[in-house]
Design goal:
205 residues; alpha+beta; 5-stranded antiparallel sheet; 4-stranded mixed sheet; 11 strands; globular
């Protein structure tokens, strides 16, 4: 098994077409994407990972039962699949969306807090600005293992340093990383503020 630094979060992002038949009907495609996590976790950890090795939070967030010093989270957009992982006992939240995804601007009422609405109203490209908030809040939902109906308006953040943010939702600090990769907008949260960077990897061990 390849050794990774314990002070980084690693991100692997790949086109789904390399792994599954993207022409499958939607339900079969979702099942195929669901199985990918076992393949990638097996590669990362150097041993076979099966459904018996995982348990799930109340809203579907997956966890490994045995690996105490390993954390991961997964996400996929229409064409890409991403997995973030760290050799640390921490929590991760990852979301990826196509940068051209169209979100109805009317949803801003349900997504944005008061201060965010002011900032968003000043944006030249309101579609991309709203997508920025959407991806960030989806990643926060995933790190907390919340429901999509938990109330995005309350998930607001105060920036303290370049990466360090304070979440008003739970009064906790997080490192937040925003990335653009292959025309995909990616946000990654970690509650371990000792993690200083995200390393992109182009292949798994």
């Amino acid at each position: 098994m390849k050794k990774f630094s314990a002070t980084s979060v690693y991100l692997y992002c790949t086109n789904q077409s390399q792994w599954i038949d993207t022409a499958l009907p939607e339900e079969k495609r979702k099942l195929a994407l669901g199985r990918l996590k076992f393949h990638f976790l097996s590669q990362i950890l150097g041993r076979q990972i099966t459904a018996q090795d995982l348990f799930y939070g109340p809203h579907g967030k997956p966890f490994l039962k045995i690996e105490q010093n390993f954390s991961f989270n997964i996400s996929h957009s229409k064409y890409y699949y991403a997995i973030a992982f760290a050799y640390r006992a921490c929590h991760l939240g990852l979301d990826i969306e196509d940068d051209n995804r169209q979100i109805k601007l009317a949803l801003a009422t349900y997504i944005l807090g008061d201060k965010e609405r002011v900032q968003w109203s000043l944006a030249n490209d309101k579609q991309r600005a709203l997508l920025y908030y959407w991806v960030q809040k989806e990643a926060f939902i995933k790190i907390k293992g919340l429901s999509i109906f938990s109330g995005m308006k309350d998930m607001t953040f105060t920036r303290l340093t370049r990466r360090l943010y304070y979440a008003d939702y739970d009064n906790q600090p997080y490192h937040i990383f925003h990335l653009m990769l292959a025309k995909q907008r990616i946000t990654l949260f970690t509650d371990d503020t000792q993690v200083k960077k995200v390393d992109l990897i182009d292949h798994l061990p």
